[in-house]
Design the sequence.
């Protein structure tokens, strides 16, 4: 059955404090990230230092007067961090993690799997001759030039080969993966993870704080499934993503091309994603009992981030 997904643990009372609800939500978000930290041997002290720094930076951006002469006092009051620590953090700002930015390799890969010019008779990404010749209208060189004329096609091919996204056999280039998941570069994978999760969480937080459905941020949830059904659902989700990718990418590319040719400043960005996840049911964590005052769960409804 399909049910609304409750991500909050049971409240201690019928009327929990707002900060308790926020902490419960943040705890649910952080659980998989704590697993990532442990897997990469990141210690508690490093995490605490990071959280303190992020709270100071956030307070400077959001608390009135926190950027002026009384910044230390205002930030200390807002965050609960000792004045001496606030002063240290303000005097030694950390480096902001950059977005992954424009990846020509990812753009070339996406265009290859979505543009019919580079497909075979079955609508799949076709093997391409490395260079344009008399017998071939489309080639990897054509694909690379359609993405950027500032980078030589050979350089772009070498990058895709390094990431193990394509193979080169007898001067023909073939896609080896169904999705752009670089196998050779952990740093790039982590940047994609950070960018995707940041924007997903930012969309949800903006909707919650603003009290309006400004950004699309919804999901379906179902439980009481057999493992075989989960495999089938995952397959269906990937098929829908591929369909969305094929339909949406050309429209986005047309807007990108038009805006690049427009003399007006183009300084906005957008990210559109889709995800699926499955795990064994854990009633104690995934579906905690609701407070006595809460309404019974609705059945067969689409889950939406609370507004």
Sequence:
């Amino acid at each position: 059955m399909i049910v609304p997904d409750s991500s909050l643990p049971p409240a201690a009372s019928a009327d929990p404090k707002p900060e308790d609800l926020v902490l419960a939500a943040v705890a649910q978000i952080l659980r998989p990230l704590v697993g990532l930290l442990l897997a990469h041997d990141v210690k508690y002290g490093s995490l605490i230092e990071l959280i303190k720094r992020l709270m100071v930076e956030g307070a400077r951006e959001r608390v009135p007067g926190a950027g002026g002469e009384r910044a230390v006092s205002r930030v200390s009051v807002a965050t609960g961090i000792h004045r001496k620590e606030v002063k240290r953090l303000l005097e030694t700002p950390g480096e902001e993690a950059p977005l992954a930015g424009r990846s020509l390799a990812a753009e070339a890969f996406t265009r290859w799997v979505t543009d019919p010019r580079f497909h075979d008779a079955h609508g799949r990404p076709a093997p391409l001759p490395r260079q344009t010749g008399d017998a071939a209208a489309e080639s990897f060189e054509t694909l690379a030039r359609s993405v950027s004329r500032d980078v030589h096609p050979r350089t772009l091919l070498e990058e895709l080969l390094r990431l193990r996204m394509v193979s080169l056999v007898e001067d023909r280039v073939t896609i080896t993966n169904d999705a752009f998941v670089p196998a050779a570069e952990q740093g790039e994978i982590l940047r994609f993870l950070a960018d995707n999760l940041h924007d997903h969480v930012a969309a949800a937080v903006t909707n919650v704080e603003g009290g309006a459905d400004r950004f699309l941020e919804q999901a379906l949830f179902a439980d009481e499934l057999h493992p075989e059904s989960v495999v089938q659902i995952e397959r269906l989700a990937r098929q829908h993503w591929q369909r969305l990718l094929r339909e949406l990418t050309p429209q986005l590319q047309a807007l990108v091309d038009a805006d690049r040719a427009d003399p007006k400043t183009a300084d906005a960005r957008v990210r559109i994603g889709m995800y699926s996840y499955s795990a064994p049911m854990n009633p104690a964590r995934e579906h905690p009992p609701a407070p006595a005052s809460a309404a019974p769960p609705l059945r067969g409804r689409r889950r939406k981030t609370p507004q």
Summary: Strands lie at 128-129, 166-169, 172-175, 218-219, 303-304. The longest helix spans residues 227-261. Residues 3-12, 286-307 have pLDDT under 50 and may be disordered. DSSP finds ten helices and five strands in the chain.
